[in-house]
Write a structure and sequence with these properties.
Helices cover 38% and strands 22% of the residues. By secondary structure, it is α/β, with parallel strands linked by helices. Strands 3, 4, 5, 8, 9 and 10 form a six-stranded mixed sheet that branches. Helix 9 runs antiparallel to helix 10. It is extended.
């Protein structure tokens, strides 16, 4: 805060300006080290009047631990022979942790296994359908369990953007979650699909057409969702929202620059490398990170029709689509006149009709 002050630890006016750290993000395993240590010093300095805040952080988030997917091979007792997971019940075996880097989709690379350790150089295998299937479990990432994933390998195979997106897509930031390399493909496909929306070969395929109401609705749903999710640190649901929006735009055959420009700006904090490439492909010569964040327009999010569930005596019987501005009385008439109502009315006069605007109609017979 005040590193060049040779008269005091910190000038009171400077401290009153900077105050405390806005956000502290750390793993729960650091709570007995970093967190207690920093709070002790802060409270010590506060009690003696050197600083103005009693707590060192405005907000604290404990990020969850990334767990590893361990793999096992099954060694037959008193031998150097290993039996595939599906056949292990037929033998007396000892499970042994195996390096996950020599396993793909739970299938062991036999040559790499023999080269992994000297004692396995002459290993023999009892296969199932010509393959050796490993067992697996979700455990804490540990060198002793050989389930530590080197991010450099993921970057080499998929790129840094896929790694970033997949880490966020795993689950809520506070939750402990398993790392499963098999799940990376879905995120990688999303980025490839986005790229292919922009290009056909090396040619940019986007147009300057006016976006359709459906495309604008899909985009502004995304803007609202991602903006609110970032404030709430709900990054996993943001990544899901990107995937849903791209699927909707693909189904609409949308190729409009007016839609994809804000899409790229939203994506930039999550996948900065591809976002920067696409931003320049759109004709910009400045960085996407210097661009204003998009704002959503509620007008585009208004539903033109509302889907009502129609129940009889509390049991849902059919759905009906109604224009959004339809008055309550008209919704009631439409429900009773619907072709699906005759069967449940059975010629009787309803005793009561309850309309919950925008949601359901319940007919009491």
């Amino acid at each position: 805060m005040d590193p060049h002050n040779d008269k005091a630890l910190v000038d009171k006016e400077v401290n009153a300006y900077w105050r405390q750290v806005d956000l502290y993000v750390g793993g729960t395993e650091h709570a007995t080290g970093h967190l207690i240590y920093s709070r002790f010093w802060n409270k010590f300095l506060y009690d003696y009047g050197y600083i103005c805040e009693p707590e060192p952080f405005k907000k604290l988030i404990n990020q969850g631990m990334i767990q590893g997917r361990s793999n096992f091979v099954y060694r037959i007792k008193d031998s150097n022979t290993f039996v595939s997971c599906e056949l292990k019940e037929d033998y007396e075996v000892t499970p042994i942790h195996v390096d996950v880097n020599i396993v793909k989709n739970d299938i062991l690379d036999l040559d790499k296994f023999r080269a992994w350790r000297p004692e396995f150089a002459d290993a023999e295998f009892i296969l199932n359908d010509g393959k050796y299937t490993c067992g697996w479990a979700i455990e804490k990432m540990s060198k002793s369990m050989f389930n530590v994933v080197n991010p450099d390998d993921v970057v080499a195979n998929y790129g840094a953007d896929t790694l970033r997106l997949y880490e966020m897509f795993l689950g809520p930031i506070e939750a402990s979650k398993p790392w499963d390399t098999n799940g990376i493909d879905g995120v990688h496909r999303f980025l490839r699909k986005l790229w292919n929306q922009f290009f056909e070969g090396d040619k940019l395929r986007l147009t300057d057409n006016e976006p359709s109401p459906e495309a604008l609705k899909s985009l502004h749903k995304l803007i609202k969702k991602v903006t609110q999710d970032i404030e709430a640190f709900s990054y996993n649901t943001s990544v899901a929202a990107f995937m849903i929006c791209l699927n909707e735009l693909t189904a609409l055959k949308c190729r409009d620059k007016a839609i994809y420009e804000p899409f790229v700006v939203l994506l930039a904090p999550f996948a900065p490398h591809i976002a920067e490439e696409l931003w320049h492909a759109l004709g910009h010569d400045t960085t996407v990170t210097a661009t204003a964040w998009p704002a959503w327009n509620e007008e585009y999010l208004k539903e033109s029709t509302i889907n009502y569930t129609v129940s009889f005596n509390g049991k849902p019987r059919f759905n009906m689509a109604v224009p959004a501005a339809t008055p309550r009385e008209e919704v009631e008439k439409l429900a009773l006149a619907h072709e699906g109502a005759a069967r449940w009315l059975d010629g009787k006069t309803p005793r009561k009709v309850i309309v919950v605007p925008g949601k359901l109609v319940n007919v009491v017979v």
